[in-house]
Amino acid sequence: MKKTKFTLSVSTAAIGLLSIHSAMASDFDRAIRPMTNLTQHDLAIPQNQIRGIYMNHKFPDRVTLANNTEVPFGGDLNLFALQAEFALSERLSIVALKDGYIDFNPDDTFTGTQGFANLAAGLKYAYILDHENSTALSGIASIEIPTGESEVFQGQGDGALNLILSGLKFYGDTQISVASGLHIPFSDSESFTGFVSAHASYHHSKAMIPFIELNWYTTLQEGDGSFDYSRQLGTTVSQNVNFEGGDLINFGAANGGDNDLVTLGLGFQSQLTDTLTSGLVYEIPLTESESSLYESRFTATLNLKF
Is residue 20 part of a domain? Predict the structure, then answer.
């Protein structure tokens, strides 16, 4: 009889531990990816996933240059992109965070055209993956290759190293994701930039996960103004623009340290199935739109885990 009681006690304890672990692991399972600062703010958990992206980015009607003159701009940019991540282990994954096709449609000054963005890929490693406390901390190192086209402000310089620290924490149904990083160019022609991003979401239900996101982009060292965008006013752009392009574009602007960029995004995501999640977000600048490329941005994503 004693042996039977002992066996039942052990079995009960084991089932309890498995149940607790399952509950803890589910927090990571339901974590959603941030949707603004698309090329830099990634989720801290290594996973197998593919994300399709459509972005419509509207430009301000006028842009202020380094000599305080204003030029007409307006129009918009459409981005069609695909991000991928492949887990090599529970803690290590390969990430491809930047690619895509850009449809550039300015109203004035610049020339409407299309072209490919640069490519960026690397490794993500989770230094902390604490299921019990629903906490993760990862480092990402990726290389951006200037494979894009100058018509859409890509393909310049000698490439860059992106170093990113990304954190994740659950408080019940509230998810907090943060990231900070550096874009370190391999030549002086491109601007050395940094960012800080934050995401907060509430998992009200699978159909409705509202979130808010904030991003701050800053220039730590300006480019030398030598980027030649041949169909977009040559070197005039990098010599006279007094801001950088945020998450997608690096002008190599010689006066790019004059203006930081802060943006706010509001949106929601829906878990359509256990593996498929869709999302919509609307983003605006909190800094002056005339001192950046931002009037507003709308982004839609479809994320598949496998």
Answer: no
Asked whether the predicted pLDDT for residue 192 surpasses 50, the reply is: yes
Examine the pLDDT at 288 and tell me if it is beyond 70.
yes
- Which pair of structure tokens corresponds to residue 246? 């945020």
Of the candidates 260, 280, 275, the one whose C-alpha atom is nearest the C-alpha of residue 47 is: 275
Cα–Cα distance list, 86 to 43, 94, 121, 246, 304 (Å): 13, 5, 11, 26, 12
229 in any annotated domain: yes
CB 85 within 8 A of CB 95: yes
Helix (H) or strand (E) holding 97: strand 92-98
Q: Round the CA-based radius of gyration of the chain to a whole number and report it.
A: 22
- Residue 177 sits at φ, ψ, to 5 deg, of -125, 135
Q: Which CATH number do you get for residue 190?
A: 2.40.160.40
| Least confident range of 35-49, 130-144, 203-217, 229-243 | 229-243
Q: Kindly tell me if the per-residue pLDDT of 7 is higher than 60.
A: no
The residue ranking higher by pLDDT, 255 or 16, is 255
* pLDDT greater than 70 at residue 22: no
Judge whether 270 lies within some domain: yes
For the chain, how many structural domains are there in total?
1
Residue type, 159: G
Rounded to two decimals, what is the model's pTM?
0.90
What pLDDT is recorded for position 258? Answer: 86
Structure tokens at 301: 């994503």
Is residue 170 included in any domain, yes or no? yes
Alpha-helical runs (H) found in the chain: 2-29, 236-240
pLDDT recorded at residue 202: 98
Q: Which amino acid, 56?
A: N
Name residue 162's amino acid: N
CA distances from 235 to 48, 227, 229, 251 (A): 41, 6, 6, 10
* Domain span holding position 257: 31-305
